[in-house]
Structures are given as C-alpha cells and as structure tokens.
Amino acid sequence: MTQIKVVISGGGTGGHIFPAIAIANAIKARYPQAEILFVGAQDRMEMRKVPAAGYEIVGLEISGFNRKKLLKNISVLWKLQKSLRKARKLLKGFNPQIAIGVGGYASGPTLKMANSLGIPTLIQEQNSYAGVTNKLLAKKASKICVAYEGMDKFFPKDKIVLTGNPCRQDLSSPHITKEEAYDFFNLNPAKKTILVVGGSLGARTINRSIIDNIDDLAKANVQIVWQCGEGYYFKLTDALLDKQDTEDIHLYDFISRMDLAYKAADLVISRAGASSISELSLLGKPVILVPSPNVAEDHQTMNAMALVVKDAAIMITDKDAQEELVKTAIATVEDESRLKTLSTNIAQLAQHDSANRIVDEVIKIIERK
Hints:
- By secondary structure, the protein is of the alpha/beta class.
- Helices cover 44% and strands 16% of the residues.
- The protein is built from 15 helices and 13 strands.
- The strands form two sheets. A seven-stranded parallel β-sheet has the order 3-2-1-4-5-6-7, sandwiched between helices.
- Strand 11, helix 11 and strand 12 form a beta-alpha-beta unit.
- The longest helix has 22 residues, at 73-94.
C-alpha cells in the first residue's frame, strides 16, 4: 500500500491523547508518506499536545453533557449540531480511508459523520467499562480494539479485537538505568521511592491526602516523586514550606521524563485511568489505585477492580484516601514480598505492541474497502 489517509479523533485527557499519538506514530513508522489528520475539541489538551507531536489537528466546538444542570445542555446540543456539520465538511474535504475514534468529546460527531459518509470506522476503547458514545458508535464500526477481556457485554463479539492500550513508546527503553533515574530526580538510592501521579491534570484528592499526611511520610524512610498538576503546584509548594523535614519530597507540576520516574519508583500511587494502568502493566510496577469518582459510569473503579481481583493492584476509594492512602503506601513499600507479588501479577496482564496491533486492524479494514 503506497498511500493512506487517516483521521484520528478524540482527546480531552492524556489518557485519550497519548494512545492516539502512539497509533499515529505506528502508522507513520510503517507508512512514512501517510497523511494523518487529528480532530479534537477546541480548548482541550489535544490542541497543544498533538501539534507538539508533529501532527495537524482541527478543533470542534464541543463539550460534554452536564448531568447535574440540565438547562446548560441547551448550548451543548447547539455545539453538537455545529460540530456534526464541521466534522462532515472536514471528512468530505480530507477524504480519509478510515476514521479512528479514541474517546473524548470529538470522537462522537467525527465517527458518526464518517459512518454517514460510508467511511469505515475503528473504535479504540481503553476502559473496562464502555462509555455511552462508543456503545452507540459500535453498531456501525468495522472493528473495536479493546484492552480488557469480557467486552462482549458492551460490543458485538465478532467486531472485538483484544489489542491493549497503546502507550508512550519512550517509557520502556532498556537503556535507562536506575542510577540515571536517581540522578535525574536527585534521589537517595538507599531509600524506597514512591511515585505519586494524578494524571496529566493532577488529582485533588490524591494531592490533599499526601499533603495532609506529609509528616508521616517525612518520618518514614521513603522519598516521594510527586506530579501534582499545574493547577495545584504553587499552593502545594507553599504548603511544603510550612512543613518540617521535607527534603525527600520532590514536587513537580508536570514530569516530562515519566520513563525515569517509573524507573525510580518502587511503588506508584495513581488514578485508575486506562492508559496509566496499561503503562503500569507493561512496566510491572506495583501500584495503589485511587479511582476518580468524577468520570462517566464510574469506569475507573471498574478498571481498578479488574486488577484487584487478580491481586495485581491495591485499590483505595476516593472517600477513604485521606485516611488510608499514605498509611497503606508506607506499609506496602516497606513490604518487599508484597511489592514482588503485585509486580508479578500486574505484569501478567500487560498487552504488548498494542499500537502496531491496532494498525494491523486499520490496514485490514482499508484493504477490504
């Protein structure tokens, strides 16, 4: 195949954007002349991250439904109609051979219009609990690439392919050493390291649980690498200045070298987004998951439970985090046997080479067209 044209749509969070970019990179690696157009939501993270990765993106004026203030959905519906018209115009102009949806606000209108124009579609469902939009889009999708077993309760079984979630390709380089990671974050190799991440935007509950129990962490023989999110950084920096013995607390608004952060970590504290879980599985990292309650259909709890039932992760609910998170983290990181069990079990759930496996499905669909 000499030339292919692909639309990739979705975003909103790093959990949607990084898999999308990984798929695009895998297409480009195989077909350097491929034309790839991203369609995202205006004013969302993808409008910055996608161009930074070297790809063109067009934004739709779209937002999610407000489930608490129903009157606000009048403007949401107006934006949706506008986005459908713009998506149709974009697709007719670009004329792709396939449209890929990775989740997020923009994927709905883009894939709906692709279906109406006879353009084949592929859905990449990252979570263990499918969202409403993907369940609707699945009816006309050619293939649905999933990361968890048992997804036939949401999608037609004959369309499902278990591929796993594509991850950032730089995370698992065999050339990175623990010593390099320790040097980068100015860590003490003699101490256990806990990596705290709340997703690319930060997580209020995790941040509050850490800062409110910082004295317990300071007393323990551990060190913390903590990505708190840009919106929390200055307030937490000020809070740390008022605390004693915090030289082992390394606070960052955003960690650009997550490969080194994971390499240094003996234990990770994280939300239970699908991409984060896929990364942790590939790296075999022991993890305490704190599912966000602010997501559709409580899918992060479902993601976490898929690991917990296999003793591949520890889960602490958002409401219990303030009381239990730091206490559990200290006990776990000091228990070498527990760390080894969690590492072994989560590694067994990893799906390798996911981006290329998804591209295999993309090419099969294009060749059938």
